[in-house]
Structures are given as C-alpha cells and as structure tokens.
Amino acid sequence: MSNRIFLIHASGYASGPAQALVDFLKMNDVDLIEFLQHPLVAEGPGLHIQTVIGKNGGQCTKERRRPNKPPITYMFDPVTPVRLRRSDVWVSFNALATIQGLVFRKLGRTKYVVHWSVDFVPRRFSNSLVNWVYETFDKKCCESADLRVELSNAALENREKHYGLDKDRKAKALVIPMGFWNDRVPVCSEDAWKAKRIVFLGHLVDRMGLDVLLSACKVLMEREVLFRLDIIGGGPLTDWLHGQIEIDALQDYVSLIGFVEDHATLATYLAASSVGVAPYAPDPDSFSRFADPGKLKDYLGAGLPILLTDVPPNAADLAAHGGAEIVSHSAEAIANAIQNLFENEEEWDRRRADAIKYRSQFDWKVMLENKLGFLLGK
C-alpha cells in the first residue's frame, strides 16, 4: 500500500497526539493530509475545522459552525464536512469517527483504519443509554480496526478487561505515550527557581483538584511565602475560580490565563515557571487513573519539577526518574511541598536536571518514527 493520503479525525483543538501526527506526516512529505478537528467540550464556539495540507506545504482551512451541546451534538462530526476524499490511512481519535472509518474501509474508500484512544474510564457517560452506545462503538473499534493505539499500558489492559476482548478478536495494539518535540520546546532556565512561579495547565473541572490547589495557595499566603500561580485552561469552573480567588483574597497571587491555543505561546509560559502542579482528585471514575495526561508531558518538556497526586499510572515513574514528587490530596501537603521546593534551590536544581534527562525519551519524532514508520512504507 502506498499510504500517502491520510485522513485524521481529532476531538478538540488542543495540541496532543493528533497534532503531533500531522506535524510528523508533514515532515515526511506525504502527498496529502486532511485534518478534521471537531468540538469536544461545551465551552467554545463549536467550530468544525477542516485543514487540507499538500505535499508542497500549502494548506487550505475551512471552518464550519454547528450547535455545540456534547455529547448529543457529536452526531454532527461524521457529516461535517459531508464529503470526504479517498485515503490510504484513516486515523481517528474517537469511536464515532473510527466507526465511520470502518464503513469507509468496507466501501473501499480507505485502506487502513487506526483507532487511537487518548483515555480510558470504566464509565464515560452518566446517561446509561449514551454510555451503552459509546461502549458498543468503542468495543467494535477495538475489534475491527487495523491498529489500536493507547497512551498507557494501564489503559490498554483495563480497556481489554472491561470489554472482555477475545485475544483472537481484537486489533493489533501499540502503546504510544504523550510526547513533545524536544527541539521545539524551550526548557526553563537555571534561574527559573527565583521566579517562584507555579503553573497549573488543564481543563478546569472538578477532578483536577483546583479547589485543593487554591486552598494550598491560601495557606502559602498566610505563611507569607513568596509565590505566583498561573492557571492555564478553560472549563466549567472558570466562574467559580474567579469568585473563590476574590473570596480568599488571592488576586495578587493567582492569575487565570485562560485557554492558550498556540502551543509556542504555551511553551513560553511553562518555561518561565518554576514548578508544574497536577493535584488530581482521587476519584475512582477519573479519566486520569488510566491516562497519560498531556499536562505532565508539557511540564516535563519544559524541564519543570512536578508536584502531583498518586492518580495517573505514571506518577511513580515520574517521581523515580523525572523530578516529580507525589503528594497527598490536601491543601497542607501541597503547600508544604511547594514551600519546601521554593526554599531549597539545590533540591530544585536536582529535580530540574532529572526532568531534562528523563524528557528525551518522549520526543514525538522518535516515538512516531519507531512505532508508525511502517505506515509510510518504511
């Protein structure tokens, strides 16, 4: 198979494996890439973005606005746009798009379908009917795609167990963790410790532990510890955060940056920080229990020491090798960890060095070349 025309279907607009794959294919001069980005969350304008990229680097982008009330409006994804070109490889990052790819393969309009899962949770939707439809589609994708990609071994193993996938009736699977472009991501300087700048990156929802993080900031303020917190991201807790910051009198300590679309701008923010925080709530239904959260790799890419709770499956590995520290999900514990780091430059230097050393193995170029080079005929 020539594998020179790729259709890539992504959920959401943030950087991640979909954008990394597009960049990787552009580097390898494939004949054509059609990149579709569909709305994932209710926040935002509900734009469906279609970008067609030619071998010479030229590209054309069209935006289509549709109602955006997930998950009901996900029904617009397969028909936006209405017509799709033939392809050699169809890569999709959600079950609905992969089902569409399987139909296209049966009709002879694509040759090879990749189902790339960016997370796993035992129950995705609270509505039983919606959840049943999702799991029926996702199981079919895991059985019938030509290739499955998972972000972590925990997600791979638990999805197979959850669906009871038969070893003779499941697609070949690969694990490709979240990564970054080592040569594009600036690393925090040796003087970044002096900035005493904390950064939180992510979707502003309950499971991210923002309530505990703000409480930790209040503790630090009362102890007269010098610090600054930047919260980068958008989500349903935005209004609550504005109110809580005012109630706790943290206006001089906490800034809500909002969602940063441009990854170069985001990387600049992170490189100017001193520590990245990920105080995930210990929720048994959390996506983060089986995922490889992108924020952790963004922090790691910037060479930042990380403070996180023991929720993601790679937390222990990050603590052992990547300059991270696991803390309990409490304001006091998080405040203590931040204060200890900000009062110990030698410890910060050591953990920064560990993060920079550990980050090298997660270069998108290396991982995608090693795992998916065969799609390019290599």
Question: Can you walk through the features of this model?
Answer:
The chain is an alpha/beta fold and 378 residues long. The chain has 12 helices and 14 strands. The protein has helices at residues 17-27, 95-106, 128-144, 153-163, 210-222, 238-247, 263-271, 294-301, 315-321, 331-342, 345-359, 364-372; strands at residues 5-11, 32-38, 47-54, 59-65, 89-92, 112-116, 147-150, 172-175, 197-201, 228-232, 254-258, 275-278, 306-308, 324-326. An 8-stranded mixed β-sheet has the order 4-3-2-1-5-6-7-8, with helices on both faces. Helix 2 (95-106) packs across helix 3 and helix 5 (210-222) crosses helix 10 (331-342). It starts with a strand and ends in a 6-residue tail after the last helix.
Task: Please give a handful of descriptors for the protein shown.
378 residues; alpha/beta; eight-stranded mixed sheet; six-stranded parallel sheet; 12 helices; 19% strand
Summarize the structure.
Helices cover 35% and strands 19% of the residues.
